[in-house]
Every structure is written in structure tokens, then in C-alpha cells.
Specification:
EPSP_synthase; UDP-n-acetylglucosamine1-carboxyvinyl-transferase, Chain; Enolpyruvate_Tfrase_sf; amino-acid biosynthesis; aromatic amino acid biosynthesis; 20 strands; alpha/beta; single chain; 2 domains
Length: 412
């Protein structure tokens, strides 16, 4: 299946942004650890959240989380302190995504986990039992989800958990998001120095919790606004918060450099509101940025900057090779189809110095990666007849993306 995308002559839309997958999946684990007594509002309906919700509700012996990376990491920890034995598995790509650092850390704490296939990778056989806690180290550069998985179960440990992150720390805002949510659920957890976190042995307490709308989903509408024709464009996004705990809320500052300004209808803390996007002439000819704290925005900015003729050098992309696909290789391959030669360095940098190549008429491949489809769709404003293969992959995080584009006047 593929879509051929025809963009409208102008962009005029007001829409509700979907709930955050990242917040939803953390909240589901904490809800499960309060024995279901917590009430969650505005839960995401994306594939990754639904598969986690189904697993926690039904708890079959074999749990297949398909391609849901956060579900794999969070359930590895959650099942370790639960009851009974479970096999945790996923897609062929999921079985290529490393999980050894998390398994090693859990084993140090006393967890019983065995590899059912290649060591260091799913599937896993997990025998659940109580874990005492203590002090451990884990590499900070591999995945913030490994750290989050350990933190989420730490309040259940009689000794609590002191967690030291070694080396560079990737996606630190996602760790801060986890700690903030844990405190909302009445746990005691915080940084005690620049690379060490302490979680006290105080269980979560039941509460009523509302999931924020997703700033990562909003990023694609910023890109659409930036690439729309030089006519009057009007975009309103509902349900976002000023002062959000989401690291990807940095998108509003980055796009301001590209001429897209954000106006909040309300700046009251913790209150969902409507934002209006305004476009001004882009004063920028080059954007250099380190995406260590917000790697999920990288694809959006690679596509958008190149099509705006803004040269760039993006660093901090070390986790992109371990996502749903190798996003660094995928971006280089697919951007060539649009006529742009993107270079890489050190397996964690992408840069463009203006080099062009002959574009092809081949469709954009999505590699079973939702963010490839989400990030490339705005290019339809600049690329006539843009085709995207397997557009259904967006259901992983933004199930109604294509419907929202239709509301904005796109023809698919």
C-alpha cells in the first residue's frame, strides 16, 4: 500500500493533538503498580499504548509487544518484580534491538531473566519475584528507556534504588519526564548529583492523572506550516501545555529559528490550551543543533531544513541507529530520492552543506518506522506527486495523522 499525497494550495486547520505516547506508557506501568486504583484520563490510542495496555490487563504467558520499544523495556522491568513466568517477544526488528544493558542491571538487582535467542536481545524469559533494590550502575548513552524502566519499578523495592548513569546521558529530558511523573504518583525520586538518581522505598499512591497532548506529534504541524506556500497559513493546535514536562516541547523554540512563532492562548501551568502558529520570514541560513535530548525530532528537522534550503549539522543522534529502523541510513537513502545528499559522521551526526543530486520518482520507504512517514509527509508541499509506502505505520504513535491531513485539505 502507498499514498500519493497532494498538498492544498494553502494551510488552514484547527485540530486536537493526540495524547502523548511517552506519558501514556509510563502512566500505565504506574497504574498497574497501584493495582489499577489509579484513574487515567486522555490515554493515547496509538498501537504502542494499546499493546502495553493489553499486556498489563491480560498478562498472557507469552507477551508479544510487536514493535513497541517502550513496552519491551518497561515490561522487562515490570515482569521482573511480578508473579509467574512470562516470555516477552516482539517483531523481527525488535529482536535486533539490544536490551542487554537493562537485563544486566536487573540481574544485578536479583532479577531472573534468560535469553530465549541471541544473548543481549529479545525474546526474554522472565521469572517474576520481589527485588530488594540497592545501588547499581547503567550506561547512560544507550537508551533513556532502560533508565526509565528501572526507575518505574524502584518504589516497590524495600531498599529503594540508587542509580548511577555512566558516560554521556542521552535523552535526559525523558528521564526528567519519568521522575516528574513518579512524583505526581507520590513516589520520592530525584537526582542527587549530575549523574545519580535516588528513589526511596515509598510505593506509588492512587491518583487521578491526565495525559498531556503530544509535542512530538505537534512537530509535524510546525513542519507543515514551515513548508506551506507563501500564502496566508493558519494552524491552531489544541491540548498542548506551556511549560510541558515533555522534552520535545523544545520544538517550539527550534521552529522559531525557522520563522514559525508560537502563541499560547493561556500560559497557566498545567492547563491544556490552544496554540496558534504564525509564520514570519526565516532569517536562518544554517541550523546547528545537538538532539541528544530530543532525538525523535531529528527526522522532522532533516526533511524540513533541507526543503527550506537551510544547511544544518545535527549531532547527538547515537540512538537513531537502534530505533524502529536505522534512521540515519534511512534518512540518507530517502532524502536522495528528493534530491538532497545528506552526509554522516561518527554514526551520530547528520549534516547537509547544500549538495544536491538528481531526484527520483521512487516512493519514500518507511521501514516499518512511523516517524519516517510522519516526517516526510510535509514534503508534499514542495514535492509534487510525493508517494509514501506503507503509510499505515503512523498508527504506532499518531493513528489519526492521515485523517487530520485530509481535514487540512490534503488529498491522499
Amino acid at each position: 500500500m502507498f499514498y500519493t499525497i497532494q498538498a492544498p494550495d494553502e494551510l488552514n486547520i484547527a485540530l486536537q493533538i493526540p495524547a502523548s505516547k511517552s506519558i501514556s506508557n509510563r502512566a500505565l506501568i504506574m497504574q498497574a503498580l497501584t493495582k489499577g486504583t489509579t484513574t487515567l484520563h486522555h490515554l493515547s490510542d496509538c498501537d504502542d499504548t494499546l499493546v502495553l495496555q493489553h499486556a498489563l490487563h491480560n498478562m498472557p504467558r507469552t507477551i508479544d509487544i510487536h514493535g513497541a520499544g517502550s513496552a519491551m523495556r518497561f515490561l522487562t522491568a515490570y515482569l521482573s518484580i511480578g508473579e509467574g513466568e512470562h516470555i516477552l517477544t516482539g517483531t523481527a526488528r525488535m529482536q535486533q534491538r539490544p536490551i542487554g544493558s537493562l537485563v544486566d542491571a536487573l540481574r544485578q538487582l536479583g532479577a531472573t531473566i534468560h535469553y530465549e535467542g541471541q544473548p543481549g536481545f529479545p525474546p526474554l524469559r522472565i521469572q517474576g519475584h520481589p527485588i530488594e533494590g540497592g545501588t547499581i550502575e547503567i550506561p547512560g548513552h544507550v537508551s533513556s528507556q532502560f533508565t526509565t524502566a528501572l526507575l518505574l519499578i524502584a518504589p516497590t523495592m524495600p531498599q529503594g534504588l540508587t542509580l548511577k548513569l555512566t558516560g554521556d546521558i542521552s535523552s535526559r529530558p525523558y528521564i526528567d519526564l519519568t521522575l516528574c511523573m513518579m512524583r505526581d504518583f507520590h513516589a520520592k525520586a530525584d537526582w542527587i548529583d549530575s549523574n545519580t538518581i535516588r528513589v526511596e522505598p515509598q510505593p506509588y499512591a492512587p491518583c487521578s492523572y491526565t495525559i498531556e497532548s503530544d509535542w512530538t506529534a505537534a512537530s509535524y504541524w510546525y513542519a507543515l506550516m514551515a513548508l506551506a506556500p507563501e500564502t496566508t497559513a493558519h494552524v491552531q493546535l489544541m491540548g498542548l501545555m506551556d511549560g510541558s514536562i515533555q522534552g520535545d516541547s523544545v520544538v517550539k523554540y527550534l521552529f522559531s529559528l525557522l520563522g514559525i512563532k508560537t502563541h499560547f492562548a493561556s500560559t497557566e501551568h498545567g492547563l491544556p490550551t490552544t496554540i496558534t502558529l504564525h509564520r514570519q520570514p526565516c532569517p536562518l541560513h544554517r541550523l546547528d543543533y545537538n538532539f541528544t535530548g530530543a532525538p525523535d525530532l531529528a527526522q522532522t528537522f532533516v526533511v524540513c531544513c533541507a526543503l527550506m534550503d537551510v544547511k544544518f549539522h545535527f549531532k547527538g543522534l547515537q540512538t537513531l541507529t537502534m530505533k524502529e529502523c536505522n534512521r540515519i541510513e534511512a534518512l540518507q537513502t530517502e532524502m536522495r530520492k528528493l534530491g538532497y545528499v545528506i552526509d554522516t559522521a561518527n554514526d551520530d551526526e547528520l549534516f547537509w552543506e547544500g549538495e544536491r543530486c538528481t531526484p527520483s520518482t521512487e516512493p519514500i520507504e518507511t521501514y516499518a518506522d512511523h516517524r519516517m512517514a510522519l516526517a516526510f509527509a510535509p514534503a508534499a508541499f514542495r514535492i509534487k506527486g510525493l508517494r509514501i509506502n506503507h503509510p499505515e505505520v503512523v498508527s504506532k504513535s499518531y493513528p489519526h495523522y492521515w485523517d487530520d491531513l485530509k481535514k487540512a485539505g490534503f488529498h491522499l
